[in-house]
Amino acid sequence: MNTSVEQVRSADGTSIALEVAGNGRPVVLIGGAFNDRTTTTGLAQVLAPYYQAVTYDRRGRGDSGDESVDYSVDREIEDLQAVIDHVGGAASLVGHSSGAVLALEAASRRLPVENVAAYEPPFIPEGSRPRPAPDVAERLARLVKAGDRDGAVMLFQTEVIGLPFELVDGMRQSDMWGFLARLAHSLPYDYALFEPGCPVPAGRLAGIQVPTLVIAGSNTFPWLMTAAEEVARAVPSARYLSLEGQDHGVLHQPATLLKCLKELVR
Fold first, then answer.
1. Whether residues 90 and 207 fall in one domain
2. Which of 170, 191, 212 is the last residue of a domain?
3. Which of 67, 68, 186, 230 has its C-alpha lying 20 to 30 A from 57's C-alpha?
C-alpha cells in the first residue's frame, strides 16, 4: 500500500499524523490502547480497494504530537474532527477496543459521522467482572508523569483490562513488551474515555443517530461480548454481530471484517 504521512492541525495546534489509501467514501480507523496507526494498517489495506481508508496516530502516539496539559476527551474529539475535515468533511468510523469507545463518543457528540462500526468496546457491564478501583486514573497519570512506563503498562493490563498479574508479569520477557511500554504514556487518554469503573454509558449512547454496528468475536472474553450486546441495545440505530472464530485480536486477521463493513458502509 503506497501512502505518505500527512499532518493536520487539531484545534489546540497539535499535529496529528495520518495516512490515506484508496478512493471512495472515507473510513477512518481508530485504534485502542497500545495502538498507533501501524496496528490498523492491515485493515486499511483490506478496505483500500473499496474505500478511502484513513489511519491516524491518536495524540501522543507515533508521529502525532500532544500540546495538551491534561488527558481530555475533548482534545481527542477535536483531533478526530480535524482528520475528518481533512478527508472531505464526513466519514464512517471503525473503532477497535477503546478506539471503538472514541468512535461512539464522536457519534454521540454529533461529529459528521455517517456510520460507526465498534469492535468490542471494553465497557464493563454490571456483574461481569471486577471494575477498576476509583483511583486508577490518578495512579495511571502519576506513573506516566514519573516516567514509569513498565508500571503504567502493568497497572493498565491488570486493573483496567483485567488480565492476571502472573500473565502480565510473564509478558515482560516477550518481544511485545517494548512496544507496549513505548505507548504507555498515552494510556491515560484511553482511560479518560470511560466513566469511573467503565460502565456502559447507556444514556449517552442513546443519543447516537447514525447506523451503528457493534461487533464481538465469538471467542472473546465473555465480559466483552456482554458489553457489545449492551452497547447495541443502548444505541437506537445499532445491530449486534458475533464474528465467528474471532477474539479481541481481530486486527491480526483484518480480512474477516471486510464483509460486515461493506454491508455497513454502502
1. yes
2. 191
3. 230
